[in-house]
Design brief:
By secondary structure, this protein is of the alpha+beta class. It has 29 helices and 28 strands.
């Protein structure tokens, strides 16, 4: 863009520049703030980021005449000479030059000669091609972006975050600037470039902006359409900021200049006046009384000793103290009493109002720069707003977390800053806060048994960390030596990639998988669950041929549920990720190796899909609960049934104690308690007896279009499952079984067969 165009851009976008001057650009994104709070705080501002012109650029500029198509008018266009290819050449320069070439209709040879003259790098000039721009372009780009830069560019793409950019267009532009050279190095096609662009854009979005993007994408909007929508929202927000700034400037400029009686020691930070101090300011007193929803981001919770407090051990002025972390607060706060106690300096600032959870509020007109020392060696200078009276002494909010790119891990009580991990401390109530409140309410509504409620609470505190079942290890036994093979790798659809990485990271974090270099590799893929999360599935079809099945048995459902009929109370305990709770012997791990999304992993626990998995798990849980009556175990489901409530509570309590003792994890979200009837594998069991689930039966049969032998086999399987509920089944399915004897693989059913079904 030439000088003239840049000046025009500045004039036409004065709104953009005039509103960039109150808080650090690193603080927070305009859109992210808006989508989080549904408004902008009164004191929100944007850093002035108007580009600074380099005088040397003007000296090294070359001017060209550009023809305006369809007219005889020409305009001046400047382009910079390249003195150092490695430092100065960019994809923007290439695009600018190609725009000029296209406008003037230059051919490849003419472009090559002109570009050659613009390249003034003495180290490389003699080796460059003069007569072909295409060859010259490839040569200079290979100099500017050598292959060793590839890893650096990938890392740079991963580090681009929306929260580090004020406007969405700046964030998008940062991605484009880094992606273009990377695309050149990788020789991306147009589709590959657009796919990588979309992937990087979504990955770096703030949490709240990403949710807004998902809403827009659900309306089948393209990324470009969503970007236009976000820019439109930003324009409205900038107008809002401009009106605020204009209003403030108007008040200041129209105020009558009167003789002021300055009082010694007086200063109002709001009016910039010595006639009174900030505490005496009537305007701020009235302002303090108003309730303004636009300031809801400045709300501080009313903390008590019983709440879950996460604190970071630090040193301030050589003294140890704990700083509370609150990701729900946008700012950092410190109590005036701590300022005095630690002899810290303060300075006056623009007043901000903070609302507490109790409904009271305070105005802070001072701030302090405090040096927080972590692990006795790493120092972080942090800005705090000073409060005269607050429920906490010192608090770190989102401002600190965002500025330092900190990652909070509440589960492991850890704060990570630039790869350095700091341990957090919390109250004993941390794990209890994670309890499934729905389940507790359900139990309390049906029983007053305090022992049962207490064991559930204790259970959940242990249930949080996904550790393995105690004192149990499983090994895979083989009928022959497995053959090493490099199987076909399944590609992962683009729409699953981000969620897929989340699932892989979860498995790593829970110590279920690890990196692998095994020669026994199986392919893997993702399937979408009902809740839109992904499940990792490994295809062990070939490996299972070499593995012996476990000698235990899976119980006959039909026989087992016969004992359940005529009971009044039913509960189901679902064991969380059943097989993954059992550790594999070291020698067996390499046979579970799989490949997905460019990396190879192997299981440290029994994986789903391995042949002996179901029977292994059935054997372990059955042995644990072998002395419990009225308890049916089917792999990872435990069904408890009883005629009286008291008996039912007693059995649940006994089961939970044994599971808790052995560190078996429960999926409370899928578990059910104190039901009058229970669905078990297509059957409904209640005090009236056992009967098929009608909707399951209809979905499996009546709406199935039978076209192949495989369809007939599935239909016969379902009918045989409900054999006891269908009179004379063998005689009535003769015509269906005859279809399997025919040579045809595809056929259609006649009306008689359809009626019989």
């Amino acid at each position: 863009m030439n000088k003239t165009n840049k000046d025009n851009f500045s004039k036409n976008n004065s709104l953009f520049y005039n509103n960039r001057g109150m808080v650090s650009r690193k603080t927070i994104s305009l859109l992210e703030t808006y989508f989080k709070l549904s408004c902008l705080p009164e004191n929100y501002g944007i850093l002035n980021s108007k580009p600074q012109r380099n005088n040397n650029d003007q000296i090294n500029m070359v001017e060209f005449d550009l023809k305006i198509e369809g007219t005889e008018i020409t305009m001046k266009e400047k382009i910079r000479k390249i003195k150092n290819i490695k430092k100065e050449l960019s994809m923007e320069w290439i695009e600018h030059f190609e725009y000029m070439s296209e406008t003037n209709g230059w051919g490849d040879k003419q472009m090559g000669l002109i570009a050659y003259k613009l390249i003034d790098d003495e180290d490389y000039k003699e080796s460059l091609t003069k007569t072909s721009y295409l060859k010259l372009k490839k040569e200079i780009l290979e100099i500017a972006y050598p292959l060793e830069m590839k890893r650096k560019l990938v890392s740079s793409l991963d580090e681009i975050k929306q929260t580090e950019h004020t406007l969405i267009k700046e964030y998008y532009g940062s991605i484009i600037k880094t992606l273009k050279p990377y695309s050149f190095m990788m020789n991306f096609s147009k589709n590959e470039y657009e796919r990588k662009l979309e992937e990087t854009f979504i990955k770096g979005l703030g949490e709240n902006t990403e949710l807004e993007l998902i809403k827009q994408r659900l309306q089948n909007k393209s990324l470009k359409e969503v970007l236009n929508y976000l820019e439109t929202v930003e324009t409205g927000l900038l107008c809002q900021l401009n009106r605020r700034e204009t209003s403030t400037n108007t008040i200041e400029s129209t105020s009558p200049k009167t003789e002021i009686n300055y009082k010694a020691g007086k200063w109002c930070t709001h009016h910039k006046s010595r006639t009174h101090n900030t505490k005496e300011c009537n305007l701020l007193k009235n302002y303090n009384k108003k309730e303004e929803p636009s300031l809801k981001n400045l709300v501080l919770k009313q903390y008590s000793e019983s709440d879950m407090n996460i604190e970071l051990p630090t040193m301030i002025n050589g003294r140890k103290t704990n700083v509370m972390i609150d990701s729900g607060s946008n700012r950092n706060y410190v109590n005036h009493s701590l300022i005095k106690e630690y002899d810290l300096k303060t300075e006056e600032c623009k007043p901000i109002r903070t609302i507490f959870g109790s409904g009271s509020s305070q105005i802070s007109d001072k701030k302090a720069i405090i040096d927080l020392v972590l692990n006795e060696k790493n120092s972080y200078k942090t800005e705090f707003y000073v409060l005269q009276d607050s429920p906490i002494k010192i608090l770190l909010g989102n401002e600190f977390l965002i500025n330092n790119k900190a990652v909070l891990d509440f589960k492991d009580k850890r704060l990570t800053i630039c790869g350095v991990k700091y341990h957090l401390i919390g109250s004993e109530r941390d794990t209890e806060e994670l309890m499934d409140e729905r389940l507790i309410d359900n139990i309390c509504a049906t029983t007053n048994d305090e022992e049962l409620i207490n064991i559930l609470k204790r259970y959940n505190s242990n249930n949080n960390n996904f550790k393995s079942i105690l004192n149990i290890k499983a090994s895979l036994n083989f009928n022959s030596i497995p053959v090493q093979s490099k199987q076909v790798k399944y590609s992962v659809p683009f729409k699953y990639r981000e969620a897929g990485m989340i699932e892989i990271n979860r498995l790593l974090k829970e110590d279920i998988i690890e990196k692998s270099n095994s020669d026994f590799v199986s392919p893997a893929f993702f399937i979408e669950k009902k809740n839109k999360e992904l499940r990792l599935v490994v295809d062990y079809k070939k490996m299972n041929k070499y593995i012996n099945d476990d000698t235990w048995f899976i119980p006959n459902v039909e026989e087992s549920i016969m004992n359940m009929g005529e009971n009044n109370y039913f509960s189901r305990i679902d064991l969380r990720n059943g097989f993954n709770q059992i550790v594999l012997e070291e020698e067996s791990k390499k046979f579970t190796s799989f490949f997905i999304m460019g990396r190879q992993w192997q299981y440290k626990r029994i994986p789903f899909g391995i042949k002996p998995g179901p029977k292994m798990f059935q054997r372990i849980i059955s042995n644990m609960l072998e002395n419990i009556k009225n308890c049916f175990i089917y792999i990872d489901d435990i069904i408890i049934y009883a005629k009286t409530r008291q008996e039912h509570v007693s059995i649940i309590l006994e089961v939970l104690k044994i599971l808790y003792k052995n560190n078996v994890k429960i999926n409370f979200d899928k578990s059910e308690f104190f039901k009058n009837e229970m669905e078990i594998l297509g059957f409904v069991v209640n005090n009236q007896g056992i009967h098929p689930k009608q909707s399951y039966f209809e979905n499996k049969i009546f709406y199935k279009d039978i076209k192949t032998k495989r369809d007939v086999q599935k239909l016969l399987g379902v009918l045989n499952w409900y054999r006891k509920f269908i009179p004379n089944l063998s005689r009535r399915i003769i015509k269906l079984t005859d279809l399997l004897k025919k040579d045809k693989t595809r056929f259609s059913l006649n009306e008689e067969l359809r009626n019989e079904i």
